[in-house]
Amino acid sequence: MNKAEKTRQYIVEKTAPIFNMKGYAGTSLHDMTEATGLTKGSIYGNFENKDEVALAAFEYNYNCISSGVRALQAERESPLQKIMAYTDFYKNISKQTVLKGGCPIVNTGSEADDTHPALREKVKTVVSNWKKNIEKFTKDGIAAGEIKKSVDSAAFSALLITLIEGGILMSKITGNLQFIHEAIKQLEFHIEHYIKK
After folding, report:
1. pLDDT at 99
2. What span, in angstroms and rounded, lies between the C-alpha atoms of 99 and 106?
3. What pLDDT, in 10s, does the model give residues 93-128?
């Protein structure tokens, strides 16, 4: 990376946790300059505006979470085990991770839903890609004889995402990890009794 790319990366890394906790509207220029130790001119010399920083911050926050799941999936060969990487990852998610800011998908999606079209589209794309990945693993699992032929891959992928995101949201609101743990238990039960062959 050249100096400009390193500076952009630094700004994103330092501001991403603030955007995830305070949201787009709640994150001020003062927050960004304080977190980075840079001036307004330095920040906006590397990014066109706050929107551009927010979009990059969302992507960074999402990648911090999703990279953990991808690392688990890379260690596994079977499609069903790749699906189970989601339950294994979120079963072991720490209270610090949840309370530090929660899931960037829920945080950014709920705030940007009616107020920030570009952020909303970015979140929609992430969810759509996540859903497609689960559908692919499910179809591959059916083809490999691991998953029942009767399983609706689209319905299952929607259920998986909803349980995980809902569990994280409720755990963040209450400060109690029971919600995400119970959501994962339900997901594991569903996989064992309705998905797994």
Report:
1. 61
2. 13
3. 876 676 667 889 988 988 887 778 899 999 999 999
| Residue 109 parent element (H or E) | helix 104-112
The residue type found at 59 is: E
Contact predicate 25/111, CB 8 Å: yes
CB 23 within 8 A of CB 111: yes
CA-based nearest residue to 178, from 170, 186, 190: 170
3-class DSSP state of 147: strand
Is the C-alpha dihedral spanning 9, 101, 106, 159 positive or negative?
Answer: positive
Q: How confident is the model at residue 1 (pLDDT cuts 50, 70, 90)?
A: confident
Residue 134 has pLDDT above 70, yes or no: yes
